[in-house]
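Researcher: Next entry in the queue.
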Amino acid sequence: MQATIQLVRDPGSHERSAIAASLIEFNASRIGRPTEDKLLVLTVTEPETGNIIGGLWGSTIHDHLYVDLLVVPEALRHGGIGRRLMALAEQEAIDRGCRGAWLTTHSFQARGFYERLGYEAFGIMDDFPPGHSFIFLRKRFETPGDLAS
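Model: Structure for this entry, 149 residues:
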């Protein structure tokens, strides 16, 4: 088999789908089809306008919650909204059968916040962006079976 390599300057969903298709088939041959990647979204709205001013955007797949975005407006920080968003997302994930959660943050963002919620760092990429770190965090959920042992 021969192939050529090209730089695609303006890629779209077609290119991503075509590239991903082979990987999806390979993975399925090893682990079976994953459970459906199901969105998990919570919004924080301004009562007067109904405008979305923050929230949590994530998904559940492979029995884990992935938190992609967590945003609490600066004026509302330290009032428990972030903690409530995470608690609601984690409970929904548990209700969906998840065993744990993972997310990423930067050293200038919210590492301490997540660690106070029981998350632990399992990977750190230093100097990304320069002068800062990119941190991978995870949390295992306690299940009734865990409590019995």
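Model: The two ends are 54 Å apart (CA to CA).
Researcher: Noted, moving on.
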